Amino acid sequence: MATPPGRRAKARLPQAGEAPLPFAPTEIARRLLAWYAQAGRALPWRGTRDPYRIWLSEVMLQQTTVEAVIPYYQRFLAVFPDVRRLAAASLDEVIALWAGLGYYSRARNLHAAAQKILARHAGVFPEDLEALLELPGIGRSTAGAILSIAFDRPAPILDGNVRRVLCRLFALQENPRGSAAEKKLWTWAQALTPTDRPHDYAQAIMDLGATLCTPRRPACPRCPLSELCRARALGLSETLPLGRAKKEMPEVLHVALLIERDGAILVRRRPYQGLLGGLWEFPVAEVPAESTPEATAAALAARHGAARARALGAVRHAYSHFRLDLRLYLAEPAATACVAESEECRWVARPALTALALHGAHKKALSLLAPAR
Ligand code: SF4
């Protein structure tokens, strides 16, 4: 309906429910920016406009806590201070620095994107959304973070923290991962992003989600948006966002063989594509349902020319989609057997194993190896 002459149109956002939202988009930004000036977090990637550093921090923070990211971020920058150094590195070097941070496709994409920035953009970070979205591993939210934080462009972001804040602010009472909800969330994210100081706004709304509007027990009484928040008004702050049904985590049983020759242990590299791609591990096999760890270890030992295998212990490790029960066996190569070294297979001296980019469960296995001799 047209606004009657002489009356100003009231700024209105897309509706989450029946009731009209009683705030103008600029009011959210105003409150968040005032709060951020007092309560914003001091983080190693704050205070820079370098898109490389902002990109790196955003990628590392996907699915990972700030506390876990900080030492990785600092080590990574010490070795690869800019996009050119990253592009010139080998994928092995990049993965070695990433080892332990998880979700290794992030490291592979980072490396591939750096090479693309060098090849297509002469090493200069692109400043437009389309070009950013063409880079491996950069989705709409990461692109928005780079554009807003590095280039002060009013680009919306929708990372986990922002998603939660918006679900509550607008009292979204549906699965936030559904396509209709996704559309609403992006519309709201876009509508709330101010043209003035988008650099600060992006960090402010992320900080609100990380420090006050937390997944459990949000600190609503201290929140600068509390008077405007529909979830708070409806008593739904702790209920929203609606959770996805928790899936049972499958448990997988593996055996790994620590074959020792002259004080060195045989390791092999996982294929670059796929789970834990590019990381190192000991020869490993899944225990079939009809077999036992002992029988699987014996078969694995035979395949690697090892004479016998004796049980060393077990470690448990949780990955994102399954839990691993890993049984370790120590083996010696038969007198005549010798596994040749290659790009994917190495004999590594025991003391050097701790510095190798072994994946989580196999790194834990080292604690069993030391007292065994
Ligand atoms: S009032 Fe509570 S639920 Fe609403 S945005 Fe603030 S912290 Fe989140």
Plain-language structure description:
A hairpin with a 4-residue loop joins strand 5 and strand 6 (323-333). The chain is built from 14 helices and seven strands. The model is unreliable at 1-19 (pLDDT under 50). The termini are far apart. It has helices at residues 25-39, 51-61, 66-79, 83-88, 91-98, 105-121, 129-133, 140-151, 160-169, 179-192, 198-211, 230-233, 293-303, 360-369, and strands spanning 251-261, 264-269, 280-281, 284-286, 306-318, 323-333, 345-349. It has two domains: 25-233, Endonuclease III, domain 1 (Orthogonal Bundle), CATH 1.10.340; 251-372, Nucleoside Triphosphate Pyrophosphohydrolase. Helix 2 packs across helix 3, helix 2 packs antiparallel against helix 8 (140-151) and helix 8 (140-151) packs across helix 11. Helices cover 40% and strands 14% of the residues. Strands 1, 2, 3, 4, 5, 6 and 7 form a seven-stranded mixed β-sheet that branches. It is elongated and about 80 Å long. It has 373 residues and is an alpha+beta fold. The chain binds iron/sulfur cluster. The site of iron/sulfur cluster (SF4) has 15 residues, from helix 9 and helix 12.
